[in-house]
Structure formats: structure tokens, C-alpha cells
Amino acid sequence: MSTDERVLRHYALNDEAGRLWTTARGTLTRLRTWDIFERFLPGGGRVADIGGGPGAHASRLAALGYDVVLVDPVPQHIDQASGVGGFSCRIGDARSLPLPDAGFDAVLLMGPLYHLADAADRRLALREAFRVLRPGGRLLAEVIGRHTWIVDATSRKLLDDPGVWDTFELNLRTGQSNDPGSVPDEVFWAYFHRTEEVGPEVEGAGFVHERLVAVEGFAWLLGDLEELLGRPESLLRAIRLTESEPSMLGVSAHLMAVASKPAPGPH
């Protein structure tokens, strides 16, 4: 089964909208992503939400006045997002976008850089993002950290599960979430980045990499997360204090690269 087929299979079996809206960890991811948007996106304009799933982020940005186009390869997601309203939706692949050159003030890559497990495919996705972004525009690109599954499995008390230590070894050695030749089709398939890989990968597509920030930070591991999310403002403020601390980046489930497309210099 190819990577593309595995992605389609994963989302056919898992409710992405439900994860972001009905679970404590998903809610944390969503709120922190919106917090990052508020601080790092331009104040308005056109946004391409590439791999935008069922439209959680697109709907938020559309409500704030952005002109949003969502592109996703999963037909189920396009159906869900189309039902939300307020933005346009197109089925498409991050490696070959059905979008015009330099047509957007910001591009979001909230899934392609980890679902595309092959480095060549990630380069194509980043180059496509570069192509459709206007000079001076902003890229926000999300990755999964190299140690995420080790931390997650430990917190979920899975250390005695058969094969889990072999999976950890594979994660650390290759960055691959699982061995495609030895796992069921429904197992999550992704690439886990080391923190030091992200900037060079983004810069290799022509962007200026500005910073790397933790999305969930340490907070996704808190036992009282659901209670804290009842009043999220203080929790979000605490995460901001550590979001760029190098010694803490690796504990976050997701990391966000903030980058820009260089604007032409004066003649």
C-alpha cells in the first residue's frame, strides 16, 4: 500500500473533526494552532490551507475575515469542509496544487510535512507552497516531533505492548512512524522530524525560516488537561513562555515552522 493510500485509509477510519473538537488533546492542538495564527499570520488577505482536513482552521480564519481556499486529498474531508461554509474547497495534492502562482498572502501546511514520509515528496510540497505564496507572504508548516510516539506511548501505558520497543527504535533511526511492510493498513503512517531538520528543510525550498515553535508544548502530557481547558487563557499563556525554548521543543507533539517567501529587493 502506497503512502497516499495509507493516508486515505487512515482518515477513512479516524474522525479528524472529532479529534480536534471533542478530545482534550485535540482541543489543545486546535486552540494553540489558532493562537499561533493570531500572532504570526498577516492581518488579512488570502490563505491557502493545504491539507486542511474537515475545515477546522479554515472556518476559524474565514470567520476572522480571511479569504480561504482549502485543499485536501481526502474526499471525505472535502465533503465535511464544504458543509461548513465561508471558504472554498478543492480536492488536491500538496505536491501539485490546483492554485495559481503567487496568489496567496499565507500558506498553511498542517499535515503534508508529516504525512509525506518521503523527503522528496516533502520537498515538492514545500516548493508548491513557495510557488503559490506571494513574495513577502508567510508560511506556517507543522511537523510531528521525532520523540512524539515514545512520549505518547509512555503516557498511555503502552510500554508492555508487543513490538512497541521495535517501533521506538525505528522512529529514532529513520524518522518513520512504522515499517510499511509489517504493520496493518490502518496504523498511522508519518515522518517524525528532528527539531534541527525543520529549518534546513524549509530553507531548501527557498523560504526564510524565522522560528520553530511548539504547538502543544508540555501541556498535552498534563493529567488535568481537560480541567485546565475549562479556562484555557492561562494555560495558553504558560505554553507561550516555553514555545521557543530549545530544551523543551522536543517534548511537544507538534512543532510549527514560521517562515516567509523573500520579497524582491530594491533595484
UniProtKB/TrEMBL annotation:
NAD keyword on record? no
Q: Name one GO biological process term.
A: methylation
Q: Where is the Methyltransferase type domain?
A: 49-140
Q: Which residues form a coiled coil?
A: none
The UniProt entry, under InterPro entries, shows: Methyltransf_11, SAM-dependent_MTases_sf
One GO molecular function term of this record is: methyltransferase activity
Q: Which UniProt keywords apply?
A: Methyltransferase, S-adenosyl-L-methionine, Transferase
Name the UniProt record assigns to this protein: SAM-dependent methyltransferase
Organism expressing this protein natively: Nonomuraea africana
